[in-house]
């Protein structure tokens, strides 16, 4: 085996993962988790994301053309990799099946032998509690050991009652060495700044809007997206829901705050959980803006941010499972565009609402890697490698199969497997990911953690 090839097939198999597992969610989440059903997502909205996955193959088209496809779902049906219709069957009903470590069967025989011993990620811990959180703070409110805090979040997540406070640090809205007083002052200043930015579009009259094409287009796209974002969650369900209005206002304000980037479909997917946790318009805006500092490149017109991540993913699979990578090469899947949705919106469509909050705080901890989401992609692909290779999936079949994994992945197991892969890859894995590949943290965040 080459030093640059770390094949790791034996530790990950389909039997280790169950469906829709509860992951440390608190009692405050139980009121809606049973209602969450990914298969009931708006078909037109899901199709739009799927079209973008395939549309990204043709990079010569501008983002405006992509946006037109988002707004016209009927036109989306005509687009295909080989000009044939591509429609995903959303009717499959998946049952909850939690496979415990004790019940999980031993890894099945792989298509190629794996010379490495089995390596497992650590068992998931309980969420960060109020008592534990308090122990990280000094008398003035500074976090004394940010690395230890991020480690705790990585392995257990955050109790829902604490998310409003802890997420502000994970997202970079608050600095780890800031005091209670400094954070209170910041909140006042940022609230005033937010209102100033918001007034820029609130003051646009109907007459002005008629001559402001960019504003009309963005507002129209936002209006369409917010009414079909996480509407199965009680916080956003029902007609005339004020929280949906706030969601729209934040996105419109952000489109003026970052006018060059504006608004792209998928941004509402990121904002919805943030607003749910913060329950405050200004704080939600600034947390979202901080997140877009890392992930905004996912929505750039040239799609360089997405291409950089998919290229890094390709290199990681080549490193950790060369036989699977070779299969993708032989079947014209080497661009890894079948993982486009996973990367674009950070697995938002693959897990339930409470699960995605846990996953995102694990990713935001940046404990093992700021690109841990790519190792998660590798872990899931390796889990299904036997089916992919055994059924000789081509690109279209693979894309359909990947999208239909929504709601079928055991999150705890996937995180454990990704941790093991990240540990095994080590510096070789880090070298697969060029500096600046999203979601890289701003330089100042590295400084405050030293």
TrEMBL record:
It is found in: Cytoplasm. Keywords: Acetylation, Cytoplasm, GTPase activation, Phosphoprotein. Residues 157-367 form the Rab-GAP TBC domain. Residues 1-45 are annotated as: Disordered. Residues 1-12, 25-35 have a biased composition (Polar residues). GO terms for cellular component: cytoplasm. Interacts with non-phosphorylated form of RAB8A; phosphorylation of RAB8A at 'Thr-72' disrupts this interaction. Interacts with ARMC12. Pfam families: RabGAP-TBC (PF00566). Transmembrane segments: none annotated. Residues 13-22 have a biased composition (Basic and acidic residues). Acts as a GTPase activating protein for RAB7A. Does not act on RAB4, RAB5 or RAB6. It comes from Zea mays (Maize). Gene3D superfamilies: putative rabgap domain of human tbc1 domain family member 14 like domains, Ypt/Rab-GAP domain of gyp1p, domain 3. SMART domains: TBC (SM00164). One of its GO terms (molecular function) is GTPase activator activity. This is TBC1 domain family member 15.
């Amino acid at each position: 085996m080459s030093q640059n090839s770390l094949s790791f097939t034996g530790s990950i198999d389909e039997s280790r993962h169950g469906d829709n597992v509860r992951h440390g969610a608190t009692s405050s989440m139980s009121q809606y988790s049973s209602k969450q059903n990914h298969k009931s997502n708006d078909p037109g909205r899901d199709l739009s994301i799927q079209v973008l996955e395939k549309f990204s193959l043709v990079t010569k088209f501008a983002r405006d053309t992509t946006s037109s496809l988002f707004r016209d779902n009927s036109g989306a049906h005509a687009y295909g990799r080989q000009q044939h219709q591509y429609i995903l069957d959303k009717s499959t009903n998946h049952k909850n099946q939690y496979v415990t470590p004790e019940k999980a069967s031993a890894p099945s025989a792989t298509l190629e032998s794996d010379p490495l011993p089995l390596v497992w990620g650590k068992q998931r811990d309980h969420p960060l509690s109020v008592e534990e959180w308090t122990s990280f703070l000094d008398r003035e409110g500074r976090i004394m050991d940010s690395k230890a805090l991020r480690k705790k979040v990585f392995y257990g997540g955050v109790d829902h009652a604490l998310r409003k406070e802890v997420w502000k640090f994970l997202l970079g809205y608050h600095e780890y060495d800031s005091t209670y007083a400094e954070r209170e002052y910041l909140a006042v200043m940022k609230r005033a700044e937010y209102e100033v930015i918001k007034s820029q579009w609130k003051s646009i009259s109907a007459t002005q809007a008629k001559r402001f094409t960019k504003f009309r287009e963005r507002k129209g796209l936002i209006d369409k997206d917010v009414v079909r974002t996480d509407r199965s969650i009680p916080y956003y369900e029902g007609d005339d829901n004020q929280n949906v209005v706030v969601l729209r206002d934040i996105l419109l304000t952000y489109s003026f705050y970052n006018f060059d980037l504006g608004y792209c479909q998928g941004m509402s997917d990121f904002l919805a959980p943030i607003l749910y946790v913060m329950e405050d318009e200004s704080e939600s805006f600034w947390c979202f803006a901080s997140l877009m500092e890392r992930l905004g490149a996912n929505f750039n017109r040239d799609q360089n941010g997405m291409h950089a991540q998919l290229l890094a993913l390709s290199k990681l699979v080549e490193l950790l499972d060369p036989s699977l990578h070779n299969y993708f090469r032989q079947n014209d899947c080497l661009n890894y565009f079948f993982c486009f949705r996973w990367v674009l919106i950070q697995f938002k469509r693959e897990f339930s609402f409470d699960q995605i909050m846990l996953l995102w705080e694990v990713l935001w901890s940046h404990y093992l890697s700021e690109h841990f989401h790519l190792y998660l992609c590798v872990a899931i692909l390796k889990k299904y490698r036997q089916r992919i290779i055994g059924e000789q999936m081509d690109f279209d079949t693979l894309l359909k199969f990947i999208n239909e994994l929504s709601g079928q992945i055991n999150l705890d197991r996937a995180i454990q497997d990704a941790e093991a892969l990240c540990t095994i890859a080590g510096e070789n894995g880090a070298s697969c990911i060029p500096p600046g590949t999203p979601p890289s943290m701003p330089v100042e965040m590295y400084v405050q953690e030293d």
